[in-house]
Amino acid sequence: MGEYSQPAKPGTVLDVPVGLEYKPTGTQVFVVGRVPQDGSVWNVIGVFSSLQVAVSECKTEEYFVGPLTMNAALPAEASSWPGAFYPKVENGR
Asked: What are the residue ranges spanned by the domains of the chain?
């Protein structure tokens, strides 16, 4: 999960495998990624155990935060990433 194969624009909804349900049970981590302005593939900036720390790593509107549960496999089909948002974008989505 180092990069995403579809182009995206900052502030758009990101796709991840179908079946990912945002349930704050188990050990949760927060992925910080960056979607370049040119809409090319997104890059992982880091993975953090705290939402507050993850948000603090978001430097521009290109950065997003998405929650994941540890030790939970993701299905192969794509869908929206529940709970993902862009902290520096107005309204976060």
From this structure: 15-80
